[in-house]
Amino acid sequence: ISICRDLPNIEVITFSVNGISDLEPLHQCQNLSELYLRKNNIASLDELFYLKTLPRLRVLWLAENPCCGPDPHRYRMTVLRNLPGLQKLDNQAVTEEELSQALVDGVEITAPPARRQVENGWSQSTSSSAAGSTTEPEGELLSCSLEETNKTQEELDMKPVPRDKYPSFSPQETDCSCKKRNNVLNAILLLMKELDAEGLEVIQQAVVRRLQAFQKKELQEE
């Protein structure tokens, strides 16, 4: 996610199911308001240190990371103590009562994580994640990616991606392939927000040429 260092104006980031363990590249995204990080390899809540400098962050989805630990209450209270500006955490609205309670039950994070410990945690969580992945529904990864991609498209006043648009999205296709395709699409949609009219025209011309090439290939195959 080092690309985020070059996107200070980005407002919404969806990085779910990406094996991410380090949030340091996000600390320069001062306009970031929504951050989706579920099902990654974030081993320590100390990574929140890099999010404390984001004044506009209102939505955070961090569930299903190793850092959530065995105690859901302590986890939620710690996140809210360090990010009191959140309005929604893990798809659940934040209340004033929770913010007050977080001052008592949450742990304040005052320093960045010790990177060696985080790397060790990442290694362990990777093996456990790989072992558990065989029991997950085969379509879960695709559903997550499509939902987040469609959310981005709605913000850009674009039509959502229909499932039947891509017949190759099936249980037979590998999870890695599904994730890569949707992540690329979502990244492109997010980066479009950073472009001016001239830049969008360049993108439009490139897309037209690409589509023409695909159409020509299909005709040749027929």
Automatic annotation (TrEMBL):
Looking at the record, which segments are called Disordered?
A: 114-173
**Biased amino acid composition, Basic and acidic residues:** 148-166
GO process terms (BP): cytoskeleton organization
InterPro entries, A to Z: Leu-rich_rpt, Leu-rich_rpt_4, LRR_dom_sf
GO cellular component terms, A-Z: ciliary basal body; photoreceptor cell cilium
* Low complexity bias locations: 123-135
Question: Per UniProt, which keywords does this protein have?
Answer: Leucine-rich repeat, Repeat
Q: Which PANTHER family match?
A: CILIA- AND FLAGELLA-ASSOCIATED PROTEIN 410-RELATED, LEUCINE RICH REPEAT PROTEIN
* Quaternary context: Found in a complex with CFAP410, NEK1 and SPATA7. Interacts with NEK1.
Task performed by this protein: Plays a role in cilia formation and/or maintenance. Plays a role in the regulation of cell morphology and cytoskeletal organization. Involved in DNA damage repair.
Q: What is this protein called?
A: Cilia- and flagella-associated protein 410
